[in-house]
Amino acid sequence: MATIMVVEDNVKIRANTIFQLEDAGYHTRGYASAEEASAYLTDPETVKPDVLLLDVRLEGKSGVELVAELSPKDQLPPTIIVSGEASINETMEALRLGVYDFIEKPATNERLMQTIRNCLEVTALKKHIKQLEAGLPGGTTILGTTAGVSNLRQQIRRVAPTQGRVLIRGESGTGKELVAASIHENSTRRDGPFIKINCAAIPGHLIESELFGHVRGAFTDARNDKQGLFEQAHGGTLFLDEIGDMDLALQPRLLRVLEDGTVRRVGDTRDRKVDVRVIAATHTDLEEEVREKRFREDLYFRLSALPIEIPPLRDRLDDIPILFTHFVQQACKMHMLPKRVVDPGTFDALKCYHWPGNIRELRNIAERMVVFGGDPLTADQIPGAIRSGGGGVAELLRPIKLAAFPSLRDFKAQCEREYLELVLHSTNWNVSETARILGIQRPHLHQKLNQLGIHRPG
Questions:
Q1: Model pLDDT, residue 402
Q2: What is the pLDDT of residue 295?
Q3: Helices (DSSP H) in 42-175: which residue ranges?
Q4: What is the mean pLDDT of residues 161-183?
Q5: How far apart are the C-alpha atoms of 118 and 113, rounded to whole Å?
Q6: What are phi and psi of 167, to 5 degrees?
Q7: pTM, entire model
Q8: pLDDT of 186-218, one tens digit each?
């Protein structure tokens, strides 16, 4: 059970708080001053508490001064301030320094216990993320605790040390490149290069030169000799993303490299030996592509010696708290913004959505909420289409998921709602600018927002 440290100079309040906490099953430590608490927390021999309950107005050093002392040294436990006398400046300073939450006195037992539970949950999520990040080198972190993700990590551990070719299957946005990088980082080739190419992103007439290289004069723009990606990946791993979109005419050349380990640059007359492990990925059904003669059967068997399937996000919804918290932290760091706290109710709302864009879509939503939302991040800051559990306008037109098509009125309202929210987010909820973009008057816009139930997040 968690240990809670209570720092309160009022004897009766301290005793009552400790009684409530122990009655709820927590272990407690009580101190009457910030100086006593500081001596305990800075002692390297002591076991640190899981949560610090801290008053602001104390005899001697104040609670905010204690936070300011411990936070820069990374000695501040997850902290909840309980006070009825903190000024706005003190509150903002404490939050800036990393305090989890403020509770005003007198606090009800329900409010106190819920805040402690939320604080412990968020702390556990952060700790779990750090443990996972420490488990895989190179930042190739596979986050999650569900059975599907545990099985995925186990498959990576098994195939990584081998030299076998791996075919990664999964929907768009599930993290196929991350899995490929993790296999490379845990393989015997980890010190070699990890080269990647998206076969769907490069025009067909250029991908041959990209993969195999060319010699000077091979075609109009070939002014110099150029190594292909196979040569660049020598001694390492080449990741062929979206292999199912590779041009059929190019597939025999790839097959030859896989069979004899040699490449010939475009326009060259000699072969070059390469030592490359190939990892491929696709979101398409390659067996169907083979049946339809759009993908070579012999190439498919060469690539799919060790298949790995990545589960979609809708099949691992219990991983959303860990993933979303991680993406929020990433976005705050990337945009140089203060750390955000995520209200636990936000996770429940996110789990109600089916996530057609998978983890990539979740990461984008986390970034959008960090930039446009408040602190803490709450469920009402989630974009409307996701908060309602739908998939946008396209989802409304899926009769397979609905008993019947929506009425024209409902469809128009949904379209208007999504479009207005999109423009409002892009203008950071500047109503005047939004009205100008939409070409309508502000009163008309306000009327529309009220009709559609659109409110500024937070």
A1: 43
A2: 94
A3: 63-70, 88-96, 109-135, 147-159
A4: 94
A5: 9
A6: -110, 115
A7: 0.59
A8: 999 988 899 999 988 887 778 888 898 888 887
Q: Is the peptide bond before 399 cis (omega within 30 degrees of 0)?
A: no
Pairing of the two strands 166-169 and 306-309? parallel
The whole-angstrom separation of Cα 413 and Cα 399 is 18
Place of tokens 């080739």: 189
Percent helix, strand, coil in the chain (nearest 5)?
Answer: 50, 10, 40
Least confident of 234-248, 302-316, 425-439: 425-439
The residues pairing with 31 across neighbouring beta strands, listed in sequence order, are 7
- Between CA 343 and CA 377 the distance in angstroms is 6
Beta strands 277-282 and 272-273 are: unpaired
Tokens of 141: 């972190």
Question: Tens digits of per-residue pLDDT, 298-354?
Answer: 999 999 999 999 999 999 999 999 999 999 999 998 898 988 889 888 998 899 888
Delineate the domains of the chain, giving CATH numbers in brackets: 3-123 (3.40.50.2300), 156-311 (3.40.50.300), 318-391 (1.10.8.60), 406-458 (1.10.10)
149/325 Cα distance (integer angstroms): 17
Distance from C-alpha of 183 to C-alpha of 159, rounded to nearest angstrom: 7
| SS3 state of residue 139 | helix
